[in-house]
Every structure is written in C-alpha cells, then in structure tokens.
C-alpha cells in the first residue's frame, strides 16, 4: 500500500470519527433540556439521585417528596446543632433564594436533617424561623432519615459514642437542585457564593420553563 493511500485512509477515518462524535453530542444533548446549565459530572448520572420519602416537617406534618418538591428546591443535608458549616451553608442557600425571588424565580430552601434524635419538629421550627419565609426542614425516624440520605448518596455519621447530648455529626456539604416531581438535576459545592449559586440555579429554572 502506497504512503499516499495510507494517508487518504487515515484522513477518512479521522473525518468519520469527528462526524460520529458530533452526532453523538447532538443527539445526546437533544433529550437534556439542562445540558447548557450543567457543570457536574457524576458517574451514572444525576438521574440516580433522589428517592421517594415521607418525612415530618417543622409544623409536625407528615409530607411526601412530591409535596415538598412542588417547585425548584435547593436541598441540603445538615443539622441544627452544627456549630459552623451548616449555618453558613443554609444561610448561603437562603440568600440565593432571595436573589432568585428578586428575579421573579420561585425557588425554595429545603433541609433534611442528619440528626433526627435532636432535630425534632419543634427544634426545626425555631431553626427555620431564623431564615427566609418558606424554608422547609424535615426530620423523621432513624430509618427514614437514613433512606433519604442514601437516596442522595449523602454520607453522615454521628459521633455520639461518649456523649449523647453534645455530639457532632460528620456529613457531606453539597446542595442539590431538585426540580418539581423529585428530579435532581445538579449539585453544587459549598464553595459557591450566593450570587454564583443563584446564577447557576437560575439557568436550570429558566430552561425548565
């Protein structure tokens, strides 16, 4: 085979690969309304995140995931006795919600506790009162909370072996964007500012409308 023929065949293969790649990207994004908004890359995709649940809110009412996620929601897993990270993350999420409201976008902040023993509905009611109107906080039995955390792949561990009252709980600090119908579409690190979080959330909310 001549060198010229080898180069021609190689060129045709390269073109074929490029065409196939472009077609894959085009058709792969065709069914994803949020492709232009995504920045995360999760093995298995974000469709695997989330789960059905029935938990208890700060008003001591049993609510389902469908009732909670009736609008775009910034979902965070934390606890009210958390001394530092949780208050900053929840306040950041609340600030982002307020920014989005100023833009005419209806988004809410949701907290699912990783400390159901201490986070009773009464404690959660006092906690949510410190933040913007409309925040939802959820608790439940140990198994219910474990199942919800597992659904969003959230690691947590209570260090209560020696002290049953004043213990800390290790947990992840991601915030998940959950769309109506319990569809998780993105997660955000806690390093984002309120403005950045609001901007990235707004992209998804507008794309869904």
Automatic annotation (TrEMBL):
Superkingdom, natural source: Bacteria
Xref: InterPro entries: SCO1/SenC, Thioredoxin-like_sf
Residues that, per the record, bind Cu cation: 82, 86, 171
Gene3D superfamilies (alphabetical): Glutaredoxin (3.40.30.10)
Short name of one Pfam family: SCO1-SenC
Keyword Metal-binding attached: yes
Alphabetized UniProt keyword annotations: Copper, Disulfide bond, Metal-binding
Disulfide bonds: 82-86
PANTHER family: ELECTRON TRANSPORT PROTIN SCO1/SENC FAMILY MEMBER, LINALOOL DEHYDRATASE_ISOMERASE DOMAIN-CONTAINING PROTEIN
Name this polypeptide is given: Protein SCO1/2
The species this protein was found in: Paracoccus alcaliphilus
